[in-house]
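Per reviewer request, we include the raw input and output of the structure prediction for the construct analysed in the revised manuscript.
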Amino acid sequence: MANERPSTPPPQPNTTSSNTLPQSPLTPEQVKRIEINRLKAKALRDQREAEARRQNGALSFKRSDSSTLAAGQKRAHSATSTSNVPATLRDGRNKDAGKNGSFRPLDEIQPARNFTKYVEYDFSKMTDTKGGFLTAEDDPHNKALYAPNAEEKPAHMTLKEWERHQLLRSLRDRKEGPFEPGLSVLKKEENKTCRECESLEIDWKWEEIFSCAVCNTCKDKYPEKYSLLTKTEAREDYLLTDPELKDEELLPHLERPNPHKSTWNNMMLFLRYQVEEYAFGKKWGSAEALDEEFDRREKDKKRRKEDKFKSKLQELKKKTRVDAYRRSRKAGSGGGQFGDEIGRGGKHTHTWGRAVENDEGIGVKTCVECGMEVEELEF
């Protein structure tokens, strides 16, 4: 029948050879025996592989072992167990892990051969000696040893507190705001007033440094008296020396930051009328005497400059004459020494003219033939 299922096992095809007999199907007893033998062979193989892993102690074999297993099969417990670790394995867990009860593998790992001289420092246990220099920690009460920088913000201050501290310090330096000296109503005669308009609103900074009580309005109104002069202007215009300008008792000065470069020295500013009083009254006597001294120095400067130019010109003339003589000797018959007569074979003899005084009052004689000049001094 066409609808009937095929029988199991399927029918064997007819054999064409008469010598080959058809195979008979396996009985259930034979199938069971084959399966038992296969499981025994598998157990023996797993046992041999575990023994080989224990003898070799190779970790790579454990990792690659999973690739040899079929899908759905697990590795044996001996393949993942760490109880049989060889002594040659560099693992810190096989020494003091069970003795102290704490597991610290990094304490037992030894460095490689190339890094045996490497020294590892524990910076948490090191002390900063500041390069051998003494610091405030060595002697915090010695102010000469350590002076804090007033321009840097202290570590315990916030930015807002530091800005407020800077503002208070600037007001204290200028004596403004809450730091301005008070005025007494009971003792009006002790109150300082402006020397020009007798106003009570004077510049206390100027009063402290220059001992000059003047208000800001009068400073702008009379610049010919209360303008500030730099050190260079006082030295060049009033012919004052550096020791005089550095003497604060003689000429007090106000220091300001240098506007050209902050790292340069502070600018020294002097009060104009104080500089004029000292220059006109004590040093030179009057403004006319200062002008005469200024003109005399200018003339001396000009004379020295002209003398320097004349000396260089004289040297140039002498050098030019020597070069001309040498060229003429080369163009002539050749040979000869310095002093020989030009154009002739004999030695040149100078014929001096009459001595003529130059601008400096020194007599100068000139050779009539070669033009050589000689200065003549009379003692």
